[in-house]
């Protein structure tokens, strides 16, 4: 869906008949027919607004960017989120329902969230309200799942990059191991690099030395600098 031109009436986002027809993949005649055929189900001020006379002129004056057929209509109908839902029901196509869900996500969402924040939640009492709530809840659930996934990724990065030894600390331990091996060889020992790393893993109970916690870095350095091979290792 192309980015919709935002049109508002009394601080609520609305759609012209031409916009609604284009979004649902139909024509304005079909939208008008659905409205007239089901007129008893539509409520003025809730599902739509009717603009005539001076109200129509003022609206067009404040929305000069409108260039569809609504601009030339003697009577302008503006459809609310609830009105768009009724038209989706009337059309009854998969495309209409899919596009209505996209409208909720991309167009009416901002207004709906503001309304939900200002107006106490009420229990839906009509099929229309239940369907609308279901679509909104579906959108919120998808958003929560995506946010949870993103948070888990961030947490994983924090765990891997902030808790374990960083690259600088790992390099310092490697240098310390080399120095310790050189020192012990001068003292007549026959130490092995792998022996020191194995001792580090056992001492800190980790699968690899680079999984030592960052907070234990100083203790790890002290361990390496004070390490001596066992007698069994000296004779290996």
Please explain how this structure is put together.
The structure is a single chain. This protein has 236 residues and is α+β, with helices and mostly antiparallel strands. It has 2 domains: 7-146, no CATH class; 167-234, no CATH class. The protein has helices spanning 17-23, 28-37, 53-62, 81-91, 94-106, 109-118, 127-163, 167-186, 193-204, 217-225, 231-234, and strands at residues 7-9, 12-16, 48-51, 76-79. The protein has a 4-stranded antiparallel beta sheet with strand order 1-2-4-3.
Précis, in short:
The protein has 236 residues and is α+β, with helices and mostly antiparallel strands. The chain is built from eleven helices and four strands, in the order ββααβαβαααααααα. Mean pLDDT is 79; it is low at 111-121.
């Amino acid at each position: 869906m192309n980015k919709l031109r935002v049109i508002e009436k009394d601080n609520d986002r609305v759609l012209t008949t031409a916009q609604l027809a284009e979004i649902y993949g139909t024509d304005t005649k079909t939208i008008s027919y659905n409205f007239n055929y089901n007129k008893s189900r539509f409520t003025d001020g809730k599902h739509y607004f009717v603009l005539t006379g001076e109200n129509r002129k003022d609206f067009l004056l404040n929305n000069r960017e409108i260039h569809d057929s609504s601009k030339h209509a003697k009577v302008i109908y503006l459809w609310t989120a609830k009105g768009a839902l009724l038209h989706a029901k009337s059309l009854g196509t998969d495309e209409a329902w899919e596009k209505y869900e996209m409208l909720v996500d991309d167009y009416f969402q901002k207004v709906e969230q503001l309304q939900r924040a200002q107006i106490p939640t009420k229990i839906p009492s009509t099929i229309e309200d239940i369907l609308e709530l279901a679509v909104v809840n579906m959108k919120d659930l998808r958003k929560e799942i995506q946010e949870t996934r993103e948070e888990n990724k961030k947490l994983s990065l924090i765990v891997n990059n902030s808790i374990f030894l960083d690259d600088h600390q790992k390099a310092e331990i490697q240098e310390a191991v080399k120095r310790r091996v050189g020192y012990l060889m001068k003292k007549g020992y026959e130490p092995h690099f792998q022996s020191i790393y194995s001792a580090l893993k056992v001492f800190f109970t980790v699968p690899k030395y680079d999984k030592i916690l960052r907070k234990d870095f100083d203790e790890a350095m002290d361990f390496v600098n004070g390490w001596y091979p066992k007698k069994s290792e000296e004779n290996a």
